[in-house]
Backbone:
């Protein structure tokens, strides 16, 4: 496929109830039309339902490094896998965890043949996390998340430096996140070495999900 979009639904009310399925179906249509890989990170309670409704890979927005069994309220990789998740985000800026836990979760997901997408806030963290060999690292300067100011334009060196830093230690793919809103943001991110994007509000808050996703897909 020509590119990768990971769409984080977060807990936005715009995708509550049946809207979750509506957005997932739109993503499926755009993926097929533009030959773009789209991975969904929907609200965790909807993973099983969406997995039986659309033909797109799904990941969990978060997992905890807790044991199966008597761990009420925690989200464990083994269970989300049974719901149909193929992997998980780790260390999103809105749900940070310590470095030891990140390494343990990457290893745990790998043992389950699940992919790991670790979020990093700066180039230094990219280097640290690359040593743990995650499948992907999403560089997201927290000050740009949800601002509509794309890192590819505001801080382009963060992407190019992250690509170089990751290559020093592993083959982890670098994704670009934070502030992406239009096709030009993706074009610049790809030119800087990004192999995909992690996006949320840029799609969820848009006036037309289909038009926005189509525009972003054209950026690849």
Residues:
């Amino acid at each position: 496929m020509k590119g990768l979009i990971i769409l984080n639904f977060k807990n936005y009310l715009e995708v509550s109830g049946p809207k979750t399925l509506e957005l997932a179906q739109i993503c499926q249509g755009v993926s097929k039309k533009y030959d773009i890989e789209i991975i969904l990170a929907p609200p965790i309670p909807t993973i099983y339902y969406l997995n039986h409704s659309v033909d797109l890979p799904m990941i969990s927005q978060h997992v905890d490094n807790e044991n199966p069994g008597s761990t009420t309220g925690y989200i464990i990789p083994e269970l989300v896998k049974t719901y149909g998740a193929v992997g998980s985000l780790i260390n999103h800026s809105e749900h940070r965890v310590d470095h030891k836990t990140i390494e343990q979760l990457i290893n745990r997901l790998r043992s389950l043949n699940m992919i790991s997408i670790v979020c990093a806030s700066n180039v230094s963290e990219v280097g640290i996390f690359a040593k743990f060999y995650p499948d992907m690292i999403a560089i997201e300067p927290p000050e740009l998340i949800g601002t509509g100011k794309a890192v590819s334009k505001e801080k382009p060196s963060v992407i190019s430096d992250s690509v170089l830093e990751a290559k020093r230690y592993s083959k982890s793919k670098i994704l670009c996140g934070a502030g992406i809103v239009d096709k030009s943001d993706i074009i610049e991110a790809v030119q800087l070495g990004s192999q995909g994007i992690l996006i949320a509000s840029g799609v969820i808050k848009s006036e037309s999900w289909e038009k926005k996703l189509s525009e972003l897909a054209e950026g690849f």
